[in-house]
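Dear all,

This email documents one entry for the complex benchmark we are building for the journal club exercise. For each entry we list the sequence lines for every component of the assembly. Then comes the predicted three-dimensional structure of the complex as a token string, followed by one or two observations. Please use this as the template for your own entries, and keep the labels exactly as they appear.
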Amino acid sequence: MIVAERKPIEEIIEQVKDVRSLLVLGCNECVTVCEAGGKKEVGVLASALRMVFLQQAREVNVGERTLERQCDTEYLEELRDAIDQYDAVVSLACGVGIQFTAEKYPSKPVYPGVNTSFMGATQERGVWVERCQGCGGCILARTGAVCPVARCAKRLFNGPCGGSTDGKCEISKDVDCAWQLIINRLKALNRLQDYETLAPIKDWSTDRAGGPRKVVREDLRS
Amino acid sequence: MRLNYPSSVRIIRVPCTGKVDVLHLLRCFERGADGVYVVGCREGDCHYQNGNFRAKKRVEQAQQLLDRIGIGGSRIRMCNLSSSDAPLFVRFAEEMHAAVMSAGPNPIRGARAAMKAAPDASSPAAHP
């Protein structure tokens, strides 16, 4: 899932300081799971904003809505009848949802209510960790399903660097050395010979360095 | 025991303080409450194991938010007692009453009253 963090409320207040009506728009997908932009967070933010506006002696209509997804135009279409009631939207979806909402309703300012962080998973309640950087050329088959692109600070492909100590990365004792994890995993799978094989030079053109990316499947296009 | 406690306290019963969400707490202030205190079982004595610990974290979260939006985090607190400890219940009520008296009225109530007295004709309808 895409992991996001709630923005400081002061930043959101600053963004919407001039609006007279506002829709706080949540998303039922990833940001609900990482408790940054689901229905509950929409309620909390809307309530807080109402109190802020009242203290500023401003009567601002703050609406609340949570869509199934903001990254699909079909779900965004559900807003069509309601969107005109509002001057602006604070979207608690990830950056994708925020941009799709803005593209769908070009005349409405859409402000971010979260900071989109990374693609990751819930390690435990309240802790989310990065697992994928979307490099566009998955090598997990060779690395025992531990990603050195996302989890090695140097993105190394042929074993650990000299900064690996007791299974930890030199950047922090809280960060596992990805290559230690890979070796442990290959050992458990009895595939340690894979570690000896030199990895070919990675094609980084599929990574973000190649500019904005797009996936097109002609067989699915209408 | 027939102990007295401040009549300003209005009790809202919940099955466990673990049921109380940040949103419930904020709604109280949005609707004009001057203060809210969540009274749970003693720490370690929760019938549902950790409901009161969850409530404690949520109260802290609400406290921080109320501080940042100008309502004041001192208006909300978490208390723990045994269900048979009436004198402590009274003490908590008195302490909260005193805390609210020192914090003054919830600014939201004053703001609503002021806006009602001088409505802006161009304002949109109130929130649903």
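Observations: Chain B touches chain A at residues 21-23, 26-27, 29-30, 65, 68-71, 107-108, 111-112, 114-115, 119-120, 123-128 (CB under 8 Å). The helical segments of chain B are 22-30, 51-68, 86-103, 107-117.
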